[in-house]
Specification:
Blueprint (H helix, E strand, L loop, with lengths): L8 H13 L7 E6 L2 H9 L4 E4 L1 H9 L9 H13 L4 E5 L7 H14 L3 E4 L20 H14 L6 E6 L2 H4 L1 H14 L3 E4 L7 H11 L4 E4 L19 E6 L1 H21 L12 H7 L2 H9 L6
Parallel strand pairs: 1-2, 1-8, 2-3, 3-4, 4-5, 5-6, 6-7, 7-8
Helix pairs in contact: 4-5, 5-6, 6-8, 8-9
Protein name: Carboxyvinyl-carboxyphosphonate phosphorylmutase
EC number: 2.7.8.23
GO molecular function: carboxyvinyl-carboxyphosphonate phosphorylmutase activity; oxo-acid-lyase activity
């Protein structure tokens, strides 16, 4: 007699994320940016449904280097596997340019699927890429090359619920019309969502609305673009057609600020006494890491010797 196989937990998270993103009129999903398992656990414990693993943050965390395309597929996908394994919320990862041509893109999808993440975004920058929020416009690959990568990524999925998000950085160098043309082509190629990277300017909200009106799939937006966008309350995002808002710099910048302040305080005062109220206690730290659950597991299997 045949039995039904249980659904893979990663597939369940992917299906739930797809459903949530495609709910008509729903408020936008907010995805704080993380770069390690500690931050991912914090995001989950704060009640968020999804976390965003920022390539910029991973480059800082693992290499101590700026986001200049130095993190390769093996490094980030193995890191993503560990991060995804420590939380029970969806994880969306930055997959840069897909780490090669269409053959490289296929392996990229396979590696991230196996890592248990919910989805990735692939951008159309020329390699080696640079963080889009650094000064200057980014050079992008030709239109057909960009679309072929997204089509290859969609066809490489073994789990149909895995999210391939088509990202274009072409707006700054080629104009918004070209960015919208690429977003529409990504949709036609089967992308689950589109992500038009924009730099801050007075009309950024109007531009986002134009993008959202031009496609029939969810729109992802980087709130780090700043300006009028950063001033929006999360409850207002969906009014501009935003289905998924990522905050890549929130944790890495807040953590960096706190580390600098704490180290300066220790250097200048010679102790941490006055910092204690701004630090997690040992109990709070262990709670964040799930120590109680680990200890409960140990008690289930007492030493019989």
């Amino acid at each position: 007699m045949s039995t039904l196989r249980p659904i893979n937990p990663a597939t369940q998270l992917r299906q739930a994320l797809r459903h949530r993103l495609n709910q008509p009129g729903a408020t936008a999903l907010v995805a704080p940016g993380i770069y390690d398992g500690y931050g991912a656990r914090m995001v989950a414990q704060a009640g968020f449904e999804v976390a965003y693993m920022t390539g910029n943050g991973v480059s800082a965390c693992l290499l101590g280097k700026p986001d200049l395309g130095l993190v390769d597929l093996t490094l980030i996908s193995s890191h993503a596997r560990r991060v995804a394994a420590c939380v029970e919320i969806a994880l969306i990862c930055d997959a840069d340019t897909g780490y090669g041509g269409v053959v490289g893109v296929r392996r990229t999808v396979q590696e991230f699927e196996a890592a248990g993440v919910a989805g990735i975004h692939i951008e159309d920058q020329l390699s080696p890429k640079r963080c889009a929020q650094m000064p200057g416009a980014r050079e992008v690959v030709p239109f057909k090359t960009a679309v072929a990568k997204i089509e290859a990524a969609v066809n490489a999925c073994s789990d149909s619920s895995f999210l391939v998000i088509g990202r274009t950085d072409s707006a700054a160098s080629c104009g918004l019309d070209e960015a919208i043309r690429r977003a529409q082509a990504f949709e036609y190629a089967g992308a689950a969502a589109v992500f038009v990277e924009l730099k801050t300017h007075a009309g950024i909200l109007d531009d986002i609305r134009r993008v959202a009106d031009a496609v029939d799939i969810p729109c992802m937006v980087n709130i780090d673009a700043g300006g009028p966008l950063a001033a929006l309350h999360s409850s207002e995002l969906h009014h501009y057609g935003i289905a998924l808002a990522i905050y890549p710099s929130l944790i890495r910048s807040a953590t960096g600020f706190a580390m600098r302040e704490a180290l300066q305080h220790l250097s200048q005062s010679g102790s941490t006494a006055l910092m204690q109220k701004r630090m997690l206690s040992s109990d709070e730290y262990n709670q964040a890491l799930g120590l109680a659950e680990v200890e409960a597991w140990e008690l289930r299997f007492p030493d019989q010797d």
